[in-house]
Amino acid sequence: MQCHNLTEKIDINKDAKKLVLVGNPNVGKSVFFNALTGSYVDVSNFPGTTVDISSGRYKDMVVMDTPGVYGVSSFNDEERVARDVILYADIILNVVDALHIERDLFLTQQIIDMGKPMVVALNMMDDVRKNGIEIDIDKLSQELGVPVIPTVAVQGEGIEEIKEALAHARTGNRLPIVEENLHTVRHLVDEDSEALLVLEEDQNIIARHNISGITGMREQIYQARRARVDEIVKEVVRYTNRGASFSVKLGRWMLSPLTGIPILLVVLWLIYQFVGVFVAQTVVGWTEEIIMGKYYYEFIMRALEPILGNESFLAQLLIGEFGVLTMTLIYVLGLLLPLVVGFYLVLSIMEDSGYLPRVAVLTDRSLNSLGLNGRAIIPIILGFGCVTMATITTRILGSRRERFIATMLLGLAIPCSGQLGVIAGLLGPLGIKMAALYVLVIFIVFALTGTLLNKVVPGKSSDLMIDLPPLRLPRMGNVLKKTYVKSKIFITEAGPLFLLGAVIITILQYTGLLNLIADGFAPIIEGFLKLPRQTAVAFIMGIIRRDFGAAGLNDMVSQGLLNPAQVVVALIAITLFVPCIAAIMVIFKERDWKEALLIWLGSFAISFLTAGIVAQIII
Fold it and tell me: pTM here?
């Protein structure tokens, strides 16, 4: 069915062999193309796409470059065009970035499974040497079953060897699962390469040949291919420190649990000192208490109180205790904005320096047991600054299942920076044993909840697929731009939700429902948690703002109403208690209402159950 052969749309001799260059994005294919074709190049645009294919001549072959792709599939125009050129190629020159060999060999193995004669150009070998990496070229060629030529294309190194190797291109070692199943669909298509894509459930190829009633094997083949590539890399790649720069050595230390965990702890301590101490206390003390809390508050009250009074509903809504012009603006601009900017500044530095992907890899195995992968460390770290911000950041996770688990853990067991400061102040005078008990209980709840959700939530979490860029000093222009964009997006999305939350709380307070809710909690708090009745008010305040609740407990301690054991029980309860109203609103926005309601009610139940059990033991 050669009417689908896109190479026929190029004005070439139909008897000429077609040499197609294939590789991931940014691996240097264009350098090889220019070296093979010289100055004459023809550019063709394929109908229905904006994708151009360059073509030229080398000896008696037509050379065609393809868009950079990570796999032969049909997810976008670039992949569809690359696929249809590759399908009808006579010889493949597969350009591989040697520094990212574990990523690029996935495409290499897929082309081998297609049965195409090929040569592999292992490019950027200079970067490999600079990073203290050794690759056994002969062993790699043996494992793949095709010629492998080491190159540094931009310096011309290996180009002549590639030209010689093209005459000896051959098919490689297919995966056993492909060999065993290819014959079941081969008679339905024109090429072995098409048969592979039918097995991989490429709907475009299936429709092209009017195929129906077959059972695809995409997941099984992909898993087998990934496992085979990992096996090959393990056999042929060796990491040494010979010739490696300090940044390369440091990058490796960051990935090893023995050295990476202490480095991570130091980095987290520095983040806490900057965000949790400098920003949350010094900067916020200035912006919230002085600029917004004093000057702005006095201004807005002088302007509106004479007009609205104190008792009317409109006065309570606009300038009351939870008013949209008082608490909401003071909270968003005075407290939240500095914290958000501070956290995104730190996150941008970690990202731009190349450290953040290494943290994801370091923590990946631990987070797997919770149904998450290493990417989840980003919202978890952000959660210690602001759970609302962290909840929005769960969008980076690869599946709905992971986003639900991460949101549940954030809302349940991660105290925000404002709450942390008060908690640390309350635990400090109690001694190391009480502080350790608090930390241990929160950690156990975090681990058990994640493990349980991993077992009961349907589906499978995604694997961590992440590039490790070289470590470098962050570019301040990039850092400041990322910080500005992310902070603006957060304030734009979360600001209206804070306002809505303030309106809801004002209505509850004005109608007396807030006191009724607090009275409803009182029997549980006095009977099961063994805490004073007025602790219920602190919990309700924690729904409005987490640090308000913690501050309420601080007031009770200062009045001598709580003994040390009760302080620990109360802190456990208020940490595990439902998130603040802003975080709740974001959770309902990000998750569907059933999931959000489950997270909300689950936090209630786990909070009181855990604190109650601890109370029965220590009080």
Answer: 0.65
